[in-house]
Amino acid sequence: MAKVFERPRALSDISLHYCPGCTHGIIHRLIAEVIDELEIEGKTVGVAPVGCSVFAYNYFECDMQEASHGRAPAVATGIKRALKDSVVFTYQGDGDLAAIGTAETVHAATRGENITTIFVNNTTYGMTGGQMAPTSLVGQITQTTPYGRDVAIQGYPIKVCEMLSTLDGTAYAERCAVDSVKNIRATKKAIKKAFETQLAGKGYSIVEVLSTCPTNWGLSPVESLDWLRENMMPVYPLGVYKNKE
Amino acid sequence: MAEKVLMKGNEAMAEAAMQAGCKLFFGYPITPQTEVAAYMAKKMPKIGGLFLQAESEVASINMVYGAAGAGERVMTSSSSPGISLMSEGISYIAGADLPCVVVNIVRGGPGLGGIQPAQSDYFQATKGGGHGDYHLIVLAPDSVQEMVNLTSTAFDLADIYRLPVMIMGDGMLGQMMEPVEFSSVTKRELPEKTWATSGTKMQRKRNVVNSLFIEPDELEEINNSRLEKYNIIKEKEVLYETANTEDADVVIVAYGIIARVANTAMQILRDKGIKVGVIRPITLWPFPSEIIAKTAKTAKAFISVEMSQGQMVEDVRLAVNGEKPVYFYGRNGGKVPSPDEICAEIEKIIGGGK
User: Fold this and answer.
1) Dist. CA B277–CA A229, nearest whole Å
2) What does each C-alpha distance from B332 to A97, B262, B281 come to in angstroms?
């Protein structure tokens, strides 16, 4: 009998540490499936961030480096420049990419650094217990915005794909979500397109994935997906923001 | 006879790095080390290497982390304020056991300080700088030729012991021109980089470059094995030079460019019949404590002369361990102690001893 479903080769055979209902696991799997399909595991080097996905280096079978907080694009630059024929990806959350690591992100993109970033946006610092992230929505209640994010105090959320798509070095930018089967399939397609962009040497590619944090949002996994659809999608519209041919 | 060329310290060091097989250089502009970057920018593309100007020192050092983790010989260069920014990254590089070379052409601090030569980053270089229990090997050349020779040594030591090695110069060494030759450089046998994340090629299990060990048992074990490495380095890699220490009453301890000033002071005083010697630490870490302790048996006093308010003097005191008095003379903020100033201090010491 033919196998119809199995663990991707590039995904390690160990339990993930993520909370129940967290979407990191889905996104990890999609990346691993793409690495398998493109047959690039042997030449891929991944860079893990600081945040909930800090242990991502344990979950992929390719070579991995663990970066300091926000510096994954700089670390990835070092790897890619040293190993021109490698495939290098960073896996980063919203705090890592859009707060402490904004400079590294913007400059890797504008250099047209030939790397791929998988950007998981769940509007939350999950690892440290649910503080405001640079992508937290206006009015969103977090541990550090207990009265809701107030633009007069904390300003506005950063729209990463919109911002990076203005840079000439960004070759591919797409925002996806993993809230439904349909969108999960679209996310995989986007991740594959991003890796293919890198393989074609076109420049910086980023896939922003709208994601949930049931634990810190204080919602069930299903309610979290509803919250994502109702509140995040209007602020962060899905779609392709840049596709340099 | 090897051909000698007249070169600036910073440029000679950059050339030496390329000759040592440095393939990538990441840096951010800062005075007084800009010639290193300028030289790399011009020459690296010609040898198939890379010079990349980063958006900050923070990015530079993390690019170094990535490239070092990928197994290439890589270097960055900066000056004091930039090294402060890199200190986080240096801690991570030490914690991930990666080899690289970091150059600090020290200028006066704190803060923006000034752009004239100083040695006020001794504590930062030898006692940490970044967070956690770690050490760099710190090499302090006193001439342009030694900048060349120690650059090759720095890359070899980094690869052998898998740690960041710092070359600590100052604005004067970096800017001055002296004749140098590149053939006297010695090379050491190097281990294979089996740990590098250069792609598994589907032929081995994955490698992981990492400094996170969340279980205290594991972190302590890894830190302790690194301590063993540090102890081996202390035993095998100490470098220093001595001059006239055998019969010296007063021994000057000085490193880098100041050791040359100290030598002049020694000659002046010897001509006056005052027995002065010089110990010049070449490795600031590991510090040449043994030779200082040994000399403390015969010398009557020590004086640490520095371009700081007194930093290395603490290590001299630890080495002398109360056997003899240890004095200090220093200028800072970009001022350089003169031979006359040093002589006057030593004459005071001798006079005070009467």
Assistant:
1) 77
2) 40, 16, 20
pLDDT tens-digit map of B227-236 = 999 999 999 9
Helices (H) and strands (E) counted in chain A, each on its own, are 10, 9
Quote the pLDDT of residue B352: 60
CA A30 to chain centre: 11
The domain in which residue B334 lies consists of 241-353
Q: Does the CB of A76 have a partner CB in chain B at under 8 Å?
A: yes
Contacts with A47 from chain B: Cβ below 8 Å = 66
Q: Is residue B79 domain-shared with residue B224, that is, in the same domain?
A: yes
Burial class of residue B262, CB neighbours in 10 A (0-12, 13-18, 19+): buried
What does the alpha-carbon distance between residue A228 and residue A222 come to, in Å, rounded to a whole number?
10
- List B279's β-bridge partners, or say none: B242, B253
Q: Please say whether the beta carbons of B36 and B13 come within 8 A.
A: yes
Cα dist from A161 to A94, A211, B92, whole Å:
12, 15, 30
A205 touches chain B (CB under 8 A): no
- Where among B236, B259, B278 does a domain terminate? B236
Contacts of B213 in chain A (CB under 8 A): none
Q: How far is CA B1 from CA B12, B70, B182, B184, B194, in A?
A: 19, 38, 11, 10, 39
Taking the CA atoms of A189, A195, A198 and A203 in sequence, report the sign of the dihedral they define: positive
φ/ψ of residue B277, rounded to 5: -125, 170
Indicate the residue type of A144: T
Clarify whether residues B59 and B185 are in a common domain: yes
Q: How far apart are CA B310 and CA A9, in angstroms?
A: 58
> Closest Cα partner for A126 from A116, A135, A114, A113?
A135
Tell me which fold the domain A24-243 belongs to: Rossmann fold (3.40.50)
- Domain co-membership, B232 together with B257: no
* Residue for token pair 């012991």: B161
| Secondary structure (3-state) at B277 | strand
Domain count, chain B: 2
Q: Which are the contacts of A39, defined by CB distance < 8 A and separation ≥ 6?
A: none
CA distance B162 to chain A (A): 16
Q: Residue B1 above 60 pLDDT?
A: no
pTM of the full structure: 0.97
Structure confidence by residue, pLDDT tens digits, A4-47: 999 999 999 999 999 999 999 999 999 999 999 999 999 999 99
